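#structure-requests
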Amino acid sequence: MSRKVLVLNQDYTALSIISVPKAFLLVYLNKAELVAESQTHALRTVSEVYPLPTVIRLQRYVSLPYKGVMMSRQNIFKRDGYKCQYCAATQDLTLDHVLPKSRGGKSNWDNLATACRRCNARKGDFTPEEAAMPLRQRPFKPSFIMFMRDYSGNTEESWLPFLAKKEKNAY
């Protein structure tokens, strides 16, 4: 089952996305309550029919010291839509340092962009302006809520009220 469930903290803030079986178990064991359920699907056993959860809320508040998006190759590809930020190619993707490392560029959200091998080699040790290769989108660090809403892959409509807050980002 590839469907996912949004997990909310006790105060209705988004915490994570989990599988349906794990969410059902949390609800069944009274560790979470059902907030929204699928209108078209259900969980069936031999003798019972249970609602298929789409949003659950934990019964106890979970304190998380840091809710951020981990910087990884795959998360940068997700942020950039699996497209080269120079030519929009979708094959043979790599990471490019917008300000080259040899010039003091760091490996962080604001300096890494998805690039195809051809564009990455063509840009070489130059900035996009020097190479006359403008970026389609300036690299930025996505917020946790934005990442879950825009890049998780399969956002359910019932999640939107809990993920709808637009957060300001440094573009």
